[in-house]
Structures are given as C-alpha cells and as structure tokens.
Amino acid sequence: MALFTGTQQQYYEGSDHGNYQFINLKDLVNNFIVNYVGENKIISKIKRTDVAYHVRRCMQEYTYDIFKSEKSQEIEVPPNLQMTLPHDYVNYVKLTWLDSSGIERIIYPTRNTSNPLPLVQDSDYNYTFDNNGNIITANESETWKKFKGRQEDSQDDLNSLENEGGITQILGGRYGIEPEYAQSNGVFFIDPLKSKIFFDASLASKIVTLKYISDGVATDDDMIVHKFAEEAIYKYVALSILSARANIPEYIINRFKKEKFASARKAKLRLSNLKIEELTQIMRGKSKHLKH
User: Which residues of 114-130 are buried (b: 16+ CB within 10 A; e: fewer)?
Assistant: First the structure.
C-alpha cells in the first residue's frame, strides 16, 4: 500500500503541504519495533514506552547538530524594550531588525552590561526583608534602567568618560577600533533567569526577528524527522538500548557505535542540501583579482 493515500487534488487544494518529506514520532517507534525487536532479532523484548523515550532523546540531540531546527519569531519592540523568549527556546541563532527595504540587519549582543538582581537596601545600606524573612528585591535594576534610557552619546559625554578611562576600551581609541562595536544596528543581551531579551533604546518600535534553536520535542507538531535522517534515528536508538542492557557483547555495541556515527554523518550531508551549481556560482567569486 502506498504511503500517500490521498489524491493530488486533495493535496493541492488542502493546507497540509510538504509533510510527505517527514516522518512522525509514532511511525518512528512502530518502524523501529518492527525492524529491531522480536525473536531472532538484535533486541528480543522491550517496552514501547522505552523505545519512545529513546526516540525523543535522539530527536533532541540530533536537533542541535543535524536537523534543520531553526525557528523564528517576529515582533515589534514594545516601549519596555523587552522580548519574552519562546516556550521552546534553547539557544539563539541571531537577532535582526527590519529596515524600510525589507533587509534584515543583524543585532549584536553586548558583553558590557547585564540585568543583575536588584536588592532593596535601607538608609544604612542594610538589606531589607519581608515578614517571611525573604530578601526584598526591586522590579528593575539600576543597570537596566540606565541602559534602556541610554541615547547616542554626545561628544561631551564621550570626553568625560574617556577621561575616566571607562570608555576607552569600548571605542578602541587607544588600541584601535573593535569590530564588534563597529556597527550601528543596536545591541541586546539575554537574561536567562527571567527568560527575557533586553534591547537598547535605538531599537524601540522596530520590527525585530529572533531566530532560535528548539529541542524538537516541545509540541506534537515539532516531533517529526526528515526522511533523510530516519535511518540515523534507528541506529541511535538501537545503540542507546543495547548500551543500557547487561550481558550485551562489547563487539555488538562497538558495531552499532560505528553504524550510528556513519548514519549520522550521512544524514548531516544529506540535510546540508549542497547543490553543485550553487557552489560553483559562489566559488566563481574566488577568482577575482584584487588590487593592492
């Protein structure tokens, strides 16, 4: 029986487009049990829940290195200059803001500020506590208040700061310009404890796009795998199950280690989607003669 059971008219007039290239969690578990579990097979007996666990772990690990796991969110920066991290956020790829031509301009992180936990002190600089003995904290730190209220520095401000020696390293006035600061697209920093992204004042009301990495198992819609990597999933799960069992010969485990490495490498190459024509066009630029 064919894998695609609908008609072409149903496909093109519907909204479920492009899903044939993926395989879901349920089918992965079923296919693994059929191929690897049973009498005279490498795994004689195992619970379905155990297989599902290892498949999920594999999807998480391969999402970071092999799968195309990049997601994106676009928002308008609110007046408080903060953006909440997505529910399935693991790490960011990049942040950009949209100019009038529709070009995404990259926003770089800053390493020279943060959002520390602000502790409330009394007039004698002692910490204050509530009725339960817990230390009282403020809503916003002074560091963040000054950062979000920062505008473009005037020359007088720069001169005074340079005399204090604090801005010299940032501007590169003493040792030359630093490339990470040689841009005017704004800056941001991430507070992982509050799950917030903080932008500087120059990005207020701009359209920003967060491109980030998910672990691939946050929702049912996420738990799909490209068919190019299907075999890599089975080898990973088989190795994980065999490695956790007693009395499995070491040569069997070593064999599956090699097969897992080879299948993961093959999946990565397939999903890299390299096209010889596109590479050729790019490499033509390497033949330009540069004048010195």
Answer: ebeebeeeeeeeeeeee
Non-local (6+) Cβ contacts of 21 within 8 A are 226, 227
- Cα separation, 198 vs 112, in Å, equals 13
Lowest mean pLDDT among 128-137, 154-163, 251-260: 154-163
CB 81 within 8 A of CB 197: no
The count of other CB atoms within 10 Å of the CB of residue 144 is 21
Q: Are 98 and 207 in contact (CB under 8 A)?
A: yes
* pLDDT tens figures, 95-112: 999 999 999 999 988 888
Rounded to two decimals, the pTM is 0.72
43 and 54 Cβ atoms separated by less than 8 Å: no
Closest CA to 62 of 219, 228, 221: 228
- For 172, left (φ over 0), alpha (ψ -120 to 50), or beta? left
User: How far is Cα 229 from Cα 270, in angstroms, rounded to an integer?
Assistant: 8
Q: Concatenated DSSP letters for 4-30?
A: --S-HHHHHHSS--SGGGEEEHHHHHH
Q: What is the DSSP letter of 110?
A: -
